[in-house]
Amino acid sequence: MPEYSQRIPVAGDDCGMIIEKIKRQQSDNSALAETLPPEAYNSDAFFSHEMEKIFRGDWVFVGHVSQIPALGDYFTLDIVNEPLVVVRNAEGVSVMSAVCLHRWAPVVSGQGNCKAFVCPFHNWTYDITGNLIGTPYMNQAADFDRKQCRLPVIRSEIVHGMIFITFSEQVESIAQRLKPLNALLDKYQVAELDTAYTLDYDCPFNWKMAVETFMECYHHSAVHRTTLEDSFPGRLSYIGEDGPGWTLCHQPLRKNGELSEVLTEGLIPLTGFSEEDMRQIHLMLIYPGCLIGLNPDRLSISTLLPINKHMTVWHRLVLVSKASSAQPSFAQTAADMKASSLSIIDEDLMINSAQQRGSASQLAGPGRLGHLETTVWHLANYIRTRI
Where would you find the membrane-spanning parts of this chain (predicted)? Predict the structure, then answer.
C-alpha cells in the first residue's frame, strides 16, 4: 500500500516546473496518454502564462454573424481582461476595444443597435467605426486632436459565419488552419444559420476542465445516466485523429434509438443529410476554447472566457436554420430548448466543481486516459505546443 502519511512534493505555483512537467510527461502514443498535472489547474502563475501564450497568442471565437445582421448591431464580451465590442458598421463586421481613450471606462456594454458609442464617464463619443467624434469641454487641452483618435481595432477573421479574434499579428490565418473542416462546416450550413438564443453561466473551475468534459462522452454513464446516456451511450462514442487546430468526438444515437431522441420538437432539420448523419452528433473543439455541437437540426457554439484559475464564463450560442427561426412558434421553441439544456449543464457543473476541489489535493497526480478520452490528450498536446 502507498504511504499516504508522507507529504507528496508538488510544483505549487512554480510555473516553470509545471511547464517542464507537461513537456516531459506528454507522450506521442495515445495508449500511454495521461491528463495534465493537477497543478496546471490550480496555479495562478501558470494561468497567467496560459492567458498570454494561448488566449492572447492564438485565435478565440467571439460570436456569429447572425448576432449582428443590421448596420449598428453590436454585442460585447471580455476576453483576457480586454472589454471588446463586435459591431456591424459600414466596413463590415469589426471587433474593437471598448475601452475609452480618455479614462478607460468601457464605452458600451451588453448588446443592441446604435449609431454611436457614448462613454458613461464623460460623454466622449465614438462612431461605430471607432472614430472619436465628440469630446465635451476639451477645447483648452493643448495639442489634442480628436480626429486622430480611434478605438483600437482587433485582428479578426470570419470563417463559415463564425467570428474569431486574435491579439497576435504573427499567428497564421484561422481560415487557412481550418480549411480541412470546410466540407463538414459547409454540410452543416454554419454560415447561413440564425441565432436562436445565447446563454451565459459561471463555471467555478478551470477552463480546461470545461473543455475536457464537453469533448468526451465517457462520463455519460455516471454523470448523465438519466439524461444523455440512454440515447447516446458513452461507450459508442469514438474519436479520430486531431487536426492542426481542432479535435472531434463523434456521438452516435443508440442502435434502436428514435430520431426524436436527436431532433428538437419545433425545429426543421437541416437538409442534405444521410440517415447516418441524422443519427449522430459531432462534438468539435477548435483550440483553445471554441466548443461546437453539430446536431442535424441545430448547432451550439460556445466560447470559454477564463476569469482566473478557478473561474470560467461559459458563453453559449445556439444556431438554427432560417426555416426553423421563421416558424410562428419559434420564440417558444427557443425558450424550451434553453430550459431543457439546464439539467445537463447542472450535471456538468456539479461534477467539474467536485473535480476542481479534488485536483487541489496533494495526493492528486496525473491520471491515465482511456480511448474514450483521446480528446483530453489532444488538448494536452495542443497546450504543450503553445506554452
Answer: none
- Three cell numbers at 162? 463564425
Per-residue pLDDT averaged across 96-104, rounded? 98
Report the percent of the chain where pLDDT is more than 90: 94
Give CA–CA dist 302/318, Å, rounded.
Answer: 8
The residue count of the chain comes to 387
Full domain range(s) for residue 74 = 60-157
What integer pLDDT is reported at residue 385 of this predicted model? 93
Q: What is residue 192's predicted lDDT score, i.e. its pLDDT?
A: 97
Distance from C-alpha of 211 to C-alpha of 206, rounded to nearest angstrom: 9
pLDDT at residue 12, rounded to an integer: 53
CATH of the domain at 86: 2.102.10.10
Say which CATH number the domain at 197 has.
3.90.380.10
Residue 350 inside a domain? The answer is: yes
Same domain, 107 and 198: no
Quick one: which of 349, 358, 366, 348 has its CA closest to 220?
Answer: 348
* Residues 6 or more apart in contact with residue 18 via CB below 8 angstroms: 11, 37, 39, 40, 43, 45, 46
- The yes-or-no verdict on residue 95 having pLDDT over 80 is yes
- Same structural domain, 262 and 125: no
Higher pLDDT, residue 25 or 221: 221
Residue with cell 446563454: 199
Calpha distance 156→303 (Å, rounded): 15
Q: How many CB atoms lie within 10 A of CB 14?
A: 15
